[in-house]
Amino acid sequence: MSLSSAQTSLLDKAPQFRHTPPVRDSASRSRKIKYALTVLAFLLPSAIPLALFTLGPMVAAAWISLTKWNLLVPPQFVGFDNYSKLLSNPKTGEVFLHTVYYIAGYLPLVYVGGLVLALALNTALKGRSFLRGIYFLPVVTSWIVVALVWRWLLNPSTGIVNTVLSFFGVEGPGWWTDPAWAMPSIILASAWKDLGFVMVILLAGLQAISPELYDAAKVDGAGWWRRTISVTLPLLSPSTFFVLVISLINGFQVFDQVYAMTGGGPAGASQVVVQQIYDLTFRYGRAGEASALSWMLFIVVLAVTVIQIRGQKRWVNYG
Predict the structure, then answer these.
(1) What residue ranges in the chain does DSSP mark as E strands?
(2) Angle at CA of residue 88, ends 85 and 90, nearest 5°
(3) By the 8 A CB rule, do 317 and 238 touch?
(4) How far is it, in rounded angstroms, from Cα 233 to Cα 261?
(5) Measured distance CA(57)–CA(61) in Å, rounded
(6) pTM exceeding the 0.90 threshold for the entire prediction
(7) What is the rounded CA–CA span in Å between residue 305 and residue 199?
(8) Residue 75, preceding bond cis, omega within 30 degrees?
(9) 86 and 297 in contact (C-beta within 8 Å)?
(10) pLDDT tens per residue across span 112-171
């Protein structure tokens, strides 16, 4: 069927609709790109050192863990032999058990001590600002200095602690020279140093609790203990969760105080995972096994942290 001349002229005069790209979509995409570039510009000063000094060494350690390397000759690829050696070596289990022993003694001591200090310094105590600074001072002190001071305090023959105990007729233990007391010595020194950090975190959490809740509890007849159990601890759970996560991660990485106080002795009684990584690398020239052990430690810490984060919904109250 052919079109008439009139129909053809009408079609020629009709407006032509052409497909044009939506202006809004292109403008929105441009804004997103500009925003991403702005964020990237602010992140680069932190992202570059993170990539160079954290992610880069982690990748390098993962590669070295698959090799046999004594730091002198080129590494030789051996696959997962280092991991199988470590898993079959009883020493690996021992150092992990010593690390767990340290955490089991350190964590309750540092948390309870920090909580007591936070509760005490949250009251209208005279000179509390000065006391807060005094208790926080060990946190910013070098670990080597603290460890050497506690090594002197706990010296079995000339230390102040045993001298005071003997004054009361108590025979002091061998502390860091005794296999049974070496780890408790390290735990005591570690808890003393970190009390101030835990105190500050919990003190901030206490000051965020509304005084009206305590007033309401008093009206209902709740005493100090009941207010602490029913008001303070539940509302302090976010700060407690943060302290537990950080303290556990630090506990698995304990090294400085062990190295300075006992060197992993006596007879390996205080040998922990990081100390074993150090010894494998610099004493025995087995950097491949050391890297494999460091990745095993990373996996354990990651698993424990994930479990904590998943379990926080059951007891952490953010309301």
Answers:
(1) 67-68, 76-77
(2) 115
(3) yes
(4) 35
(5) 6
(6) no
(7) 22
(8) no
(9) no
(10) 999 999 999 988 778 888 888 898 999 999 999 999 999 999 999 889 999 999 988 888
